[in-house]
C-alpha cells in the first residue's frame, strides 16, 4: 500500500467544492466530499487506477475521474500526492496547481 498525501491546494479545492454544494444542501455537500475522499482512498490500493495526464508533458501525473471532477495526482515509488481536484470543464492549462507543478 502506498502513502497518500494531500497538497495544500487540493485541500482548498475540496473545501471550495464543499462550500459550493453547501449553498444548496449541506447534507449533499458532506455526502459528496465523503464519496470523493473514498474515491481518492482507492488509490492507496490501486495507484495506477487513473490515466496518464499529458504524458508528453508530465512524467508522473495521472487523473482519476469522479462524477464531473478530475482528481489530479502524482504517483512516484510508494507515494501518491493529490495535486488538485477540479471540475472537468476547466482547461488543464488554466488550473493554477498544474501551472505551478514541478516534477
Could you explain the architecture of this structure?
The protein has helices spanning 8-22, 26-45, 96-99, and strands spanning 3-6, 51-52, 61-66, 69-76, 79-87. It has 103 residues and is an alpha+beta fold. Strands 1-5-4-3-2 form a five-stranded mixed sheet. The protein has a single domain (3-99), classed as RelE-like (YaeB-like fold, 2-Layer Sandwich). The radius of gyration is 13 Å and the shape is globular.
Produce a short descriptive summary.
This protein is α+β, with helices and mostly antiparallel strands.
Taking all residues together, what is the mean pLDDT?
A: 91
User: Structural class of the helices, strands and pairings?
Assistant: alpha+beta
- The domain count comes to 1
- Measured distance between first and last alpha carbons: 22 Å
Judging by the overall fold, what is the CATH architecture? Answer: 2-Layer Sandwich
**Which strand order spans the largest sheet, edge to edge or round the barrel?**
1-5-4-3-2
Strand content: 25-35%
User: CATH-wise, what's the superfamily?
Assistant: RelE-like
Helix content estimate: 25-40%
What order do the SSEs take from the amino end to the carboxyl end, as H and E?
Answer: EHHEEEEH
CATH classification class: Alpha Beta
Amino acid at each position: 500500500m502506498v502513502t497518500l498525501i494531500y497538497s495544500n491546494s487540493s485541500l482548498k479545492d475540496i473545501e471550495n467544492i464543499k462550500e459550493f454544494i453547501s449553498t444548496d444542501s449541506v447534507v449533499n455537500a458532506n455526502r459528496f466530499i465523503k464519496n470523493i475522499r473514498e474515491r481518492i482512498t482507492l488509490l492507496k490500493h490501486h495507484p495506477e487506477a487513473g490515466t496518464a495526464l499529458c504524458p508528453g508533458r508530465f512524467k508522473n501525473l495521472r487523473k482519476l475521474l469522479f462524477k464531473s471532477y478530475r482528481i489530479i495526482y502524482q504517483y512516484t515509488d510508494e507515494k501518491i500526492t493529490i495535486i488538485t481536484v477540479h471540475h472537468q470543464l476547466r482547461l488543464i492549462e488554466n488550473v493554477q496547481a498544474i501551472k505551478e507543478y514541478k516534477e
